[in-house]
Amino acid sequence: MDLSEADKEKHQAAWISVLAALLLTAVKLAVGLATNSLGILSEALHSGLDLLAAIMTLMAVRISSRPADASHPFGHGKVENLSALAETLLLFATCFWVVYEGLHRLIEGGSPVEPSVWGMLVMAFSVALDINRVRILRKVAAKHKSQALEADALHFATDILSSFVVLVGVSAVWLADKLALDGTVARLLTQADTVAALIVAVIIFQASIRMARAAINTLMDSGSVEEQEAIRERVERVPGILAVQRVRQRTSGPTTFVDLVVGVDPQIRVASGHKLAHDAALAVEAVIPGADVTVHLEPLRACQRDSDPLSVINQLASQHGIAVHDVHIMSSPQRKAVELHVEVPAGEDFRTAHDRVHKFEKHVAARLSPATVVTLIEPEGSLAEAQMTDNDDDPLRRTIEETINRLVNDEPLTAHPHRICLYNLPLYGPCLSFHCEVASGLSVRDVHVITLRLERALRGLLPVLGRITIHMDPQDEKTA
Predict the structure, then answer these.
(1) 387-474: CATH architecture
(2) 8-state DSSP, 37
(3) Per-domain boundaries in the chain
(4) I need a labelling partner for 113 at 20 to 30 A (CA). Which of 41, 155, 254, 294 fits?
(5) Which residues pair with 328 in a beta bridge?
(6) What's the CATH code, domain 5-219?
(7) What CATH class has 305-384?
(8) CATH class of the domain comprising 225-302
(9) What whole-number distance in Å separates Cα of residue 66 and Cα of residue 74?
(10) Shortest CA distance to 39 belongs to which of 108, 91, 114, 92?
């Protein structure tokens, strides 16, 4: 198989990592056995697992460079994530062994460490070698977007810190011997090696958790929400794209696959549709360079953005996972203005909620462009917290019922007010709804004018009311 220049560089970096791990394992093991240092022996075991991990990374890089085939149409990139996940399992085993042995030494006080300048030298050598290895791995990983090499670099970056901790522990033991210290201070310094080993275990465990989470997320095709939002915004700006209906993203090795469904005018020609798909793919690649993009075109009414803004708002609200109500859309020849209420969880941090709602506002403004959007953020479920007022002896209820009957009777085209409901909302205070019959033969516009007239009269006489909802029923011909 002919390798590209990128694959050759990745293989070379992986081989350097393998050779470095092999050298460090041999040196640490020899010095650790000679000095009986748990810190150095734990580092030798750690380097041994690093060697195994580096070999796994080399194999993963080699396999992931194979081209896609009939059995693996998306390529072989997932093997890098499987390699990282297997590496974390090895690291977890290391952590448990070091913690067990370290606690045993602290409690029993056995297996004293033989002070030696060689212990300090080997750990200093380990730090220097790891710094150079991490630099090479990060450079190649960033250049070719290799997740396997990036995980290797992250892993060996933690080795630098853990090796430095062990260096401090071994130096403390050597210092206690050279100064011939006695008593508590000497015991504390001689136990510094064991404490350093336990700190190494904590560092390894934390790095393993991060690596395992990243590997599992990639294997489960978890995409970046931020990148998906950026893709949506970029594609929506492509002329001819009426809507971005779905964005799905998955990663396999260095390649990101994006599945995009966009709405277009159903009357466009095939050639024009192909160009729109190409432009959408270029917009995605501007967000994620080198992405493998699949664009599916869905027929959509070209005038949807202008003729049905309420549907657009509800669609976007659903995409952002929020609830909206009290939507008011105002239009002029130049632009649209939208005012609406947005519900978010009551316990959510306001800044987080504001950022989420702000993204929703930007999408609404872009889809209804040119438009301005103003939102009122409310706690979720605030409208559902209504308390009914069923007490017939309540003075306010009696006053409202009398006022409704009088106004409806004074209006020549309405009659028979019924199903009067008085309730309280936290945001509005006392609220009212009722049904009323209206004369037959009227248009929707005529009935709306009558409804507004009744509502204004009620507000003038009862300014305490927050919301007023009047449901009009056509009057029965037999009772008219």
Answers:
(1) 2-Layer Sandwich (3.30)
(2) -
(3) 5-219, 225-302, 305-384, 387-474
(4) 155
(5) 339
(6) 1.20.1510.10
(7) alpha beta
(8) alpha beta
(9) 11
(10) 114
Amino acid present at 143: K
- Looking at residue 172, its amino acid is A
- Bridge-based pairing of strands 387-388 and 414-425 is antiparallel
Per-residue pLDDT of the chain (480 residues; tens, 9 = 90+): 455 666 677 777 778 778 877 887 888 788 777 777 665 676 677 677 777 777 877 777 777 667 666 776 666 666 766 766 777 777 777 677 777 777 776 777 654 555 566 667 777 777 788 788 778 887 877 776 666 676 667 666 666 766 676 677 667 767 766 776 665 666 666 666 677 767 777 777 877 787 777 777 777 766 677 888 889 888 988 888 888 888 888 877 667 889 999 888 887 888 888 999 999 999 999 888 888 899 999 887 544 444 577 878 887 887 777 888 888 888 777 778 888 888 888 788 888 888 888 888 888 887 777 788 899 888 876 555 556 666 666 788 888 889 999 999 999 899 999 888 888 876 678 888 899 999 888 888 889 899 999 999 999 998 888 888 899 988 875 444
Q: Work out the burial of residue 404: count CB atoms within 10 Å of its CB; fewer than 13 is exposed, 13-18 middle, 19 or more buried.
A: buried
Residue 161 buriedness (CB in 10 A; 0-12 / 13-18 / 19+): middle
Confidence (pTM): 0.47
